[in-house]
Amino acid sequence: MDRETPRSVMFDDLRKFGGITNRDTAWMLLRSTPMAGGKAPRDRVDERTFLSREVVHAPVERPRPELFADITQTAQNITARLIANLGGSEMARAMVAEHYSGDAAEAMRESLSAYGLDDRIYRNACDRIAAPGTTAADCALPLVTLFVACGCLCDPQAAVQVTETLITDKMGGHFSTTELSVGEGFTAAVEPEVKHAERLGLIRIVGNAAKPPLYPLNEGEGGTVIGSLATGTGAITDVDRDVSRRHARVFAKDGYWYVQGLGSTNGTVLISGANMSQHVVEPPRHTRRPGVEYPPVPLWHSDTICLGATTRFLVMKLAI
Description:
- This protein is α+β, with helices and mostly antiparallel strands.
- The protein starts with 5 loop residues before the first helix and ends with a strand.
- A six-stranded antiparallel sheet has the order 2-1-10-9-6-7, with no helix packed on it. The protein has a four-stranded antiparallel sheet with strand order 3-4-5-8, with no helix packed on it.
- About 35% of the residues lie in helices and about 15% in strands.
């Protein structure tokens, strides 16, 4: 059986859960202005071949994002339709929020994973939108927007950016990280001896066990960003919910590897693989002193990077 694409997951869910036909969903999503040399995509919703092949069942490698109107606007229309079809009450809004943070989110993640796309960044965005203490009124629309944007674009990183635009520009909010109390009193890192940078990678440690895959570190300019909503070449999003969207960066410079904090909420600590000493890379936000800068900290094979309270990565040397 063929794998369901993110697009087909979206259409199937809106039809089964929300009672919105594929035609009606497409009519809300497609742009109403003509494209070069033809009709407006919205005017073609009654063409069965176009609707099926180019929209509902379009292949992941050819999503054609140019067919779609402003997703932040159309997602509002779809959310309103979902709530109305479910009874139009606050209970209906709560049902929408629960579904798109639960069953629908899991279905989308499974599809993303099946196509080798970053399902973790989708999970992390859901966790932030539906964080403890938020209400259905706060999170129903962003959750539907994330789901719809991922279906339309078949790109979870772009879907997160669309959702953040909605939250910041139209709802006056932002993606936030829960602030925790993290230990203090660590020592400063020792500058390395002269040594050419080895090829390194990171592997997540959960409990006392390594959790594949091994993430090779980007040796190019910019390095590797770790965070719940991190983007870019080699970005690592396999983190717990107390990790900031762009939490820390690992990079190579002048023959050495370094890790540096990026202004995270809950801070970063490095544990030396040589002697198990702990070095503050960046303290938690609530303990930082105004005007103090936190420079990059040298990184070596067998060290452990600790992000927030529970996310750990072991630094490993890669075979050449």
